[in-house]
Amino acid sequence: MAKKTPEKDARYKRELEKTELTYRGFPLSKPRLSEGISHVFQCNWCGSIHPTEEAALKCLRSTEPHPFEPGDIVVMSSSLREGEDEYCPFGWYDGDERWIFKKGRGLHGGPGAFAFYYVVTANIYRINGNFLLLENAHDAVFCVATKAMQWCGYSHGWTHQDTHTNFTKLEDPPKFIVKSSKDLIGQISDRLL
Predict the structure, then answer these.
(1) What is the pTM of this model?
(2) 49/88 same-domain check
(3) Is the dihedral of CA 115, 100, 157, 66 positive or negative?
(4) Does 139 map to a domain?
(5) Is residue 43 exposed (0-12), middle (13-18) or buried (19+ Cβ within 10 Å)?
(6) Per the domain annotation, does 120 fall within a domain?
């Protein structure tokens, strides 16, 4: 996972200083005129070409707001179910047991499955300057990490809310989880959870 650096923070702040518009609290800049063509506008977010500035702004404003903030403690929504609908997605863990949110039923109702606490580490739309392979390039993507997994995968990744890994924010998470998650905030993952 890549860590935040002062150089990346400074570059991001310089980009923010150039912005003229905001939408749903997100800084946005006016669509730029495509180079070499005087009558076409491009969405700054997804790069799509539009015949008018209004159309490019409409595309730009279709960007989803992020559902969570970095530092929010979340759990997979499926693990909040009870009874017959209960589902804990993992059959193992190899990290810190205190990061286990719930022990319960797994796939096909089998016992011995686990659900984990995750921390939202970053809100992103792009990784390494590239848009993620999503149906809609304006989808809000966020990165999460857990300390319940260390070596066997699923310790971190990116996702968005309309996938098989929907998350729900915990309003009153355990203090230990909040405190021990601080070193994960700011990390960006380049793999799908």
Answers:
(1) 0.69
(2) no
(3) positive
(4) yes
(5) buried
(6) yes
Distance CA 92, CA 26 (A): 38
- Domain of residue 44 covers 15-60
Query: What number is the average pLDDT over the span 67-84?
Result: 84
pLDDT per residue as tens digits for the range 164-175: 678 899 999 999
Q: How far apart are CA 75 and CA 77, in angstroms?
A: 6
Q: Answer yes or no: do 134 and 161 share one domain.
A: yes
| Ordered DSSP codes for the chain | -BPP-HHHHHHHHHHHHT--EEETTEEE-PPEEPTT-TT-EE-TTT--EESSHHHHHHHHTTPPPPSS-TT-EEEEGGGG--GGG----BS---S-GGGEEEEE--GGG-SSEEEE-EEEEEEESEETTEE-S-SSTT--EEEEE-SS-SSSS-SEEEE-TTSS--EEE-SS--HHHHHHTGGGTT-B--SB-
